[in-house]
Amino acid sequence: MPQLSGKKEQRDARKTALEAEADRAGSLSLPQLGAEVMTKAFTEVAPVAAGELNYLGFGKIVARFAPGVSRTDAKLYERFSELVGEGLQVLEHASLVRFPAESMGADCYTATRLGRAALERGVVEHIIVGGSL
């Protein structure tokens, strides 16, 4: 395979890799997808003082789930947005994430205590399918 020499080739290669990642993520079961969204989006959340919560906007979650995806490629961004939305729904149903109680924007999420504990113990998918800590 010839080496990439220009920006267009690099963009094309990045897009091909992102499309393959979207295909892979789209083939996951819902519990697997939810666990992957949780792990990719909420593992790197900075610690906060007692009583405070970290909120992640939907766009930030998409960016953490699929680094390199850009809104300039609307079709690809939409694919990842749909996957992230499905994963977040699974996580909400398992009480691992929630919308913030106060109005900080309708598209922000935070990990619950259960979600943070599941991440720490590496049992997110186990919780999603009905297990306990």
Name the descriptors:
133 residues, Arc Repressor Mutant, subunit A, three-stranded antiparallel β-sheet, 6 helices, 6% strand
Question: What report would you give on this structure?
Answer:
By secondary structure, the chain is mainly alpha-helical. It has one domain: Arc Repressor Mutant, subunit A (Orthogonal Bundle), CATH 1.10.10. The protein has 6 helices and 3 strands, in the order ααβααββαα. It has helices at residues 7-26, 30-42, 58-65, 74-93, 113-121, 124-128, and strands at 56-57, 97-98, 108-111. Strands 1-3-2 form a 3-stranded antiparallel β-sheet. The model has no long low-confidence stretch (mean pLDDT 86).
Blueprint (SSEs and pairs):
Elements: H1 7-26, H2 30-42, E1 56-57, H3 58-65, H4 74-93, E2 97-98, E3 108-111, H5 113-121, H6 124-128
Write a brief structural summary.
By secondary structure, the protein is mainly α. The protein contains 6 helices and 3 strands; from the N terminus they run ααβααββαα.
What is the number of beta strands? 3
Mean pLDDT comes to 86
Q: In CATH terms, what is the architecture?
A: Orthogonal Bundle
Largest sheet, strands/sense/barrel: 3 strands, antiparallel
What is the rounded distance between the termini? Answer: 48 Å
Instruction: Quickly count the helices.
Output: 6
**So what's the CATH class?**
Mainly Alpha
Give the topology string: H per helix, E per strand. Answer: HHEHHEEHH
Q: How big is the Rg?
A: 16 Å
Estimate the strand proportion.
5-15%
Q: What is the general shape?
A: elongated
CATH fold name, please? Arc Repressor Mutant, subunit A
Low-confidence stretches: none
